[in-house]
Backbone:
């Protein structure tokens, strides 16, 4: 009985997150689901407290990162990046793709995939359209790199943050182990995207229209210095014995004080409080589903150990689960299972849940619901291209990046 | 005679230049640009891939859709200036091949540029132009976006090669 209730609670939370009902927002559904699993006894109150205590610092870290990225936006970092990309492209589409790759991979690694999707991609679209050149390769590059370039740092993806503690490694060791998989993933994206979009990228350079001078754009020095210092702080966190979250918070405070948002409400909404509540509640619901049988099911299909074959198996299972139920719950479910073989197993799982979502855009169950929502809004959108790109990049990236991780584990 | 000139960002100059030379002077000309809705969608909607996140904070500037529309209009107007004659402008958005075919349905001539490899081979027509050429109901004028290499540089299939 408890098994069924926990699974229904999980399904309800995920459905609400995808469907985005106005009357039943996802965070409210997830909180209600979390309360229900505790009331019916699918999870003890102590178990719920433990889950919340484990997730609390991660959610605080996420809030600081979201505020930091929003501070960068207010300081004009992304507009400056757009100008820099236009300047660096010298009006050639292939060069533009090169600088878009640099910008998207760096933004994702440093400021997380959310910054790339929400803040950088619209800028990239505008930059390409104004050149003018087909925005297609550049927008798809951002969209893909937001996932596949989120391997490098614990702050690059919420999945990394959720699994960071279970990894049991320092910030710098995490980066050292994931550097090769990250580079391999970006290289595969470059090879595939520049081939698939070769027609869009073939275009003679057009002289700049009169009145547009090609001067190097001005960069917001303060914000970039704060981000750089925050990164340095992450790097030395284990040496000085201060948790990385405090450096993220300091960076967020510095940017907020230097250029305060319009209102306190704007500051609060930059931290996406409803999303933070959703993550906490989802954590409780997934824990309930885990202790009621889901963990043992996942455990039985997940390989153990640190051999290359085992790591490939973990990455594959994680990628499949991320596509079935979305990468956030997939991480929460698998991390408990693979933490026994940390850090190798946890990092292989992260390759799966981070790269995997490029396969079906939103996860296959979500795609079903989402198609209905898109059609309801009368949008004639064909994501066949996305699926095709996913089929070309994801399997190759999973294998090559996991092999890179295995190699890095032998060295570091 | 109604002539439709389909321009894209990568080949609009060549397309307009050759249409100016080849389309009859008395033709009723329309310039067409199609914005791909999947690209606008990916750029403007985070999508439910970001589980549980709100929609992005409303940006101060114009939306992706507005930027796309403004740039399409600007490109069409530059094309009309280059064409140097009266022409209607049509900016559509959706799936590219379908929009072009629907726009060409009542036309007597469709002008478009090759969008593939700059060589004399099947790949010189990319997949959008290929679909449009294959399915258009009217005569099609398929122009090169840059001067093609000579016949001597063409890769002949074995059965067509001259014995030397």
Residues:
């Amino acid at each position: 009985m408890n098994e069924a209730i926990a699974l229904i609670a999980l399904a309800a939370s995920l459905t609400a997150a995808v469907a985005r009902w106005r009357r039943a927002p996802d965070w409210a559904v997830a909180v209600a689901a979390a309360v229900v699993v505790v009331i019916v006894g699918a999870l003890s109150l102590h178990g719920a407290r433990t889950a919340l205590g484990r997730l609390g610092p991660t959610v605080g870290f996420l809030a600081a990162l979201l505020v930091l990225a929003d501070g960068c936006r207010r300081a004009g970092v992304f507009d400056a990046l757009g100008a820099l990309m236009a300047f660096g492209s010298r009006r050639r589409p292939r060069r533009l793709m090169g600088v878009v790759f640099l910008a998207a991979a760096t933004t994702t690694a440093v400021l997380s995939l959310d910054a790339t999707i929400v803040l950088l991609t619209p800028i990239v679209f505008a930059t390409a359209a104004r050149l003018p050149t087909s925005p297609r390769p550049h927008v798809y590059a951002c969209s893909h790199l937001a996932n596949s370039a989120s391997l490098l740092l614990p702050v690059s993806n919420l999945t990394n943050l959720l699994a960071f503690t279970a990894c049991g490694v320092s910030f710098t060791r995490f980066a050292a182990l994931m550097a090769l998989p990250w580079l391999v993933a970006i290289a595969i994206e470059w090879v595939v995207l520049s081939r698939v979009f070769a027609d869009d990228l073939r275009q003679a350079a057009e002289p700049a229209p009169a009145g547009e001078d090609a001067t190097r754009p001005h960069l917001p020095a303060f914000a970039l210095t704060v981000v750089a210092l925050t990164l340095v702080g992450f790097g030395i966190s284990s040496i000085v014995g201060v948790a990385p979250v405090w450096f993220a918070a300091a960076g967020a405070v510095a940017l907020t004080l230097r250029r305060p948002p319009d209102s306190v409400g704007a500051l609060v909404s930059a931290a996406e409080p409803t999303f933070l509540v959703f993550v906490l509640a989802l954590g409780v619901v997934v824990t309930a589903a885990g202790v009621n049988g889901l963990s043992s099911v996942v455990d039985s299909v997940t390989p153990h150990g640190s051999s290359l074959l085992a790591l490939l198996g973990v990455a594959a299972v994680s990628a499949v689960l991320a596509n079935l139920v979305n990468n956030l719950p997939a991480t929460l479910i698998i991390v408990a299972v693979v933490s026994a073989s940390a850090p190798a197993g946890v990092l292989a799982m992260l390759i799966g849940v981070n790269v995997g979502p490029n396969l079906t855009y939103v996860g296959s169950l979500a795609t079903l619901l989402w198609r209905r929502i898109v059609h309801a809004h009368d949008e004639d959108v064909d994501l066949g291209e996305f699926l095709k790109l996913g089929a070309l990049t994801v399997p190759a990236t999973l294998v090559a990046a996991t092999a890179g991780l295995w190699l890095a584990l032998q060295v570091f | 005679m109604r002539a439709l000139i389909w321009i894209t960002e990568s080949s609009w100059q060549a397309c307009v230049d050759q249409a100016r030379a080849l389309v009859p002077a008395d033709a009723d000309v329309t310039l067409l640009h199609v914005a791909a809705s999947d690209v606008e969608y990916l750029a403007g909607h985070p999508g439910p891939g970001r589980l549980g996140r709100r929609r992005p904070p409303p940006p101060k500037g114009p939306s992706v859709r507005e930027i796309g529309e403004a740039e399409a209009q600007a490109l069409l107007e530059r094309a009309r200036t280059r064409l140097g004659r009266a022409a209607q402008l049509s900016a559509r958005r959706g799936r590219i091949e379908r929009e072009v075919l629907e726009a060409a349905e009542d036309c007597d001539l469709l002008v478009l540029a090759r969008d593939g490899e700059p060589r004399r081979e099947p790949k010189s027509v990319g997949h959008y132009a290929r679909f449009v050429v294959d399915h258009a109901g009217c005569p099609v004028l398929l122009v090169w976006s840059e001067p093609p290499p000579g016949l001597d540089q063409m890769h002949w299939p074995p059965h067509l090669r001259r014995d030397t």
Q: What stands out?
A: The mean pLDDT of chain A is 89.
